[in-house]
Amino acid sequence: MIDLIDVSKSYGQGLPAVNHANLHVDKGEFVFIVGSSGSGKSTLIKLLLKELDSTSGTTIVSGEKLEGMKHRRVAKYRRKLGVVFQDFRLLKDRDVYENVAFAQRVVNRPTRVIRKRVPEVLQEVGLAGKYKAYPDELSGGEQQRVALARAIVNRPDILLADEPTGNLDPKTSEEIMKLLEEINERGTTVLVVTHNKEIVNSMKKRVLTMHNGVIISDEKEGEYYEA
């Protein structure tokens, strides 16, 4: 599903942001990526998103090699990915339904498919009754649920979540992580970048720890610790 083979990413002088990373993630895994600020976590996610190109090494996602991928191919590749960010990134001038439907419109899903799928996914994230609400009428947790619905509406192979609970209180954070776990149980591979030590330690998932761009540990049922 995901393979990094001796992958490095440098922005210039100094230590690489990602330094000779080797990683294999099987289909259906749930993986936390942890480490202090500047450890390379977000750079790793951007490499998988093809927002950045590696300086060296080989990155293969769902059978596609990212190095050397033609620009015109990138948009189609990203359809295999769902992405959730700390700051939600919702369209403020559109209601919940249209925020989620937007992800289907950009890949030219027929209207009949959108009308069926959007209510389904809003039900999955617990927002069936909020489809007419606008982002500024929702709590932070509800906004992140909308972002999750938008990320999974096209049934991606992989969900990348970059600090998805960073702006949320502990109770809401637990609820969002439970949703991510449910999405994973339905077959989606999930990678979560987080600083939330309590959640990582309570969920007993695979944990990758990064420090100065290096993956320094990879534990099947790991815990969060500061390098």
TrEMBL record:
The keyword Cytoplasm appears for this protein: no
Subcellular location: Cell membrane
Residue ranges occupied by any ABC transporter domain in the UniProt entry: 2-227
Keyword terms: ATP-binding, Cell cycle, Cell division, Cell membrane, Membrane, Nucleotide-binding
A GO CC annotation given for this chain: plasma membrane
Subunit-structure text: Homodimer. Forms a membrane-associated complex with FtsX.
Family (UniProt): Belongs to the ABC transporter superfamily.
Protein name: Cell division ATP-binding protein FtsE
Taxonomic lineage of the native organism: Bacteria, Bacillati, Bacillota, Clostridia, Lachnospirales
